[in-house]
Model the fold of this input.
Amino acid sequence: MMNRFVSTIQITLVSAVLLGVESAQAHEGTTGIVKDRMDRFKASKESVKQIKKALKTKDWSRIQKEANDLQQWASEMSNFFPEGSNGKPSEAKDNIWSDWEGFLRSVESYQEGTEKLVQASNNKSLEATATAFKATLKSCKSCHNDFKAD
Ligand code: HEC
Done:
């Protein structure tokens, strides 16, 4: 009687643990890369915020660091959109994959903006940096208009 009671508890515990592992894996499998790119996008938004601040105080080392981060992300972004990585909870639109060339062009214009931003901030040119920053922000918005659900 006691034994049966104990083993019932054990089975319950084991299956609870197994279920936990299983759902964690399902979560990982379907949303791993989506979560990764969301984190990168969030970080890029933070970089934008920091650059805005740093432009006011002409904190060039800060601007340069954040510009480099944005440029790095721009160069990697397309790898974070493997086919089939749409659907909930992602806000990525299906046309990313049906118009992959168009998406790549959008990534490219973002890349160009961030490269100019890196250059201009290395040269410590306030005007060129502000111009490149504006162009970069425009490319964020333009891609969101075309490829991100709101
Ligand atoms: C070439 C396309 C493209 C560019 C350029 C781009 N984004 Fe996005 N962004 C997306 C897509 C697509 C998503 C939706 C990702 C998802 O939910 O799977 C997204 C999502 C986001 C999110 C939401 C992340 C979350 O937690 O859900 C933020 C914030 C963001 N982008 C900020 C930016 C900023 C800031 C820039 C420019 C510095 C930028 N993005 C440039 C395509 C782009």
